[in-house]
Amino acid sequence: MPIAPDILARLHAIVGESHVKTDDDSLKHWGCDWTKVRAPAPSAIVFPVSVDQVQGIVRLANEVKLALVPSGGRTGLSAAAVAAEGEVVVSFDRMNRILEFIPEDRLVRLQPGVVTAQLQAYAEERGLYYPVDFASAGSSQIGGNIGTNAGGIKVIKYGMTRHWVLGLKVVTGKGDVLDLNKGMMKNATGYDLRQLFIGGEGTLGFVVEAMMKLDRAPRDLRVMVLGTPDFASVMKVLAAFQKQLDLTAFEFFSELSTQLVTRHQGVPRPFDAATPFYALLEFEATSDKVVDEAMALFESCVEEGWVVDGVMSQNQTQAKTLWRLREGISETISHYTPYKNDLSVLIHHVPAFIADIDGIVADQYPDFRVVWFGHIGDGNLHLNILKPDDMGKDEFFAKCGSVNTRIFETVARYGGSVSAEHGVGLTKKPYLGYSRSPEELAYMKAVKLVFDPNNVMNPGKVFDL
């Protein structure tokens, strides 16, 4: 749907004519994320460079009832950044500066368009560490990470994005600017409104600045990949290692994942033996004693029958190669049009939960290839079903969608989440009731109306009003 000429002229006046795009290529490029479930169809893309410009766009949206969709690195997997209904996309690509470093507090004040890897490199240059990390770190933006409360591969040690956000400046759906928490570690002055915007997917307002906490850099990281005969053994390995070592990561993936990654990305197998599942764990080898403890744990797991074979990195190059076995999965399976589920339950429930889900998958998808991987150390499982070559995309997605009810009923039975780290957006919106009670949803909708009474901020995402 073309944007009205008078509204287009007012957007030009706010951000400059050269920073509003309406050509087809731009609409397609900035109107989507990594999902393929909805075709992008925005009416315009705007590129603000300041808080005042964002505020001007939001106030215009309220005046003329214009729907806005935030756009960062567009690496999301829930269609939260998809503009499919003629919305105006607000891209933060130009708001990409690191504004201030406060060394005494280990704080970085930055704009939302800063790329995750850029913040990681900035921290490293100062002998510090930004630990939120995932495969899309090279293109995802901090504003999007905050909007989805991104997780990734280090959650077992460092937590989700919300653990690292000490201050937010936001433009609410009403067009007000709020400066929330201002970087303080301790602030007991009532409601912490900052937390509502973390994970809010841009439905309450847009993040225009953030104050991000940094940590000390980890020392002498070692990576182990262990092959296990079954999934239950993965959990036993986790318990054994976590009891004695302070793990910075604990991931798992299946043999099919390994076959695909080694084939498509040229990554060598970790060892000759092929096992049904693999555990990848990482820890700080701060002394020879820690390394010896890790090797003793490995040998104990072999004796118990929980581990068939394994390898430990001896240098950073080997560590990066071993990590590619896990981090290369998402990119590799994207060539197969996967249907993704991002689930989580308490670690206590994981063995029984995955057995139940495996039963559903075997019953409903007997001819489909299923790729399991995930951040098992924090209870997060990624279930990926690969489209057969001889099946059309629409038929495939319809088949997968028809089984979601059984999968999410199982999630609800274990008190889990239908979206551990990918957000709700459009793809998980129909299933939100499996993780949130009717009373919770009513409160969430009421909060939305307080901050965004005209429903201009990413409307239709998370839930419908």
TrEMBL record:
Pfam families: FAD-oxidase_C, FAD_binding_4. Residues 38-217 form the FAD-binding PCMH-type domain. Its cofactor is FAD. The keyword Zinc applies. InterPro entries: FAD-bd_oxidored_4_C, FAD-bd_PCMH, FAD-bd_PCMH-like_sf, FAD-bd_PCMH_sub2, FAD-linked_Oxase-like_C, FAD-oxidored/transferase_4, Oxid_FAD_bind_N, Vanillyl_alc_oxidase_C-sub2. The keyword Metal-binding applies. Keywords: FAD, Flavoprotein, Metal-binding, Oxidoreductase, Zinc. GO terms for molecular function: (R)-2-hydroxyglutarate dehydrogenase activity; FAD binding; metal ion binding. SUPFAM superfamilies: FAD-binding/transporter-associated domain-like (SSF56176), FAD-linked oxidases, C-terminal domain (SSF55103). It comes from the Bacteria. One of its GO terms (biological process) is respiratory electron transport chain. Its EC number is 1.1.99.39. It catalyses: (R)-2-hydroxyglutarate + A = 2-oxoglutarate + AH2. Homodimer. Belongs to the FAD-binding oxidoreductase/transferase type 4 family. This is D-2-hydroxyglutarate dehydrogenase. The lineage of its organism: Bacteria, Pseudomonadati, Pseudomonadota, Betaproteobacteria, Burkholderiales.
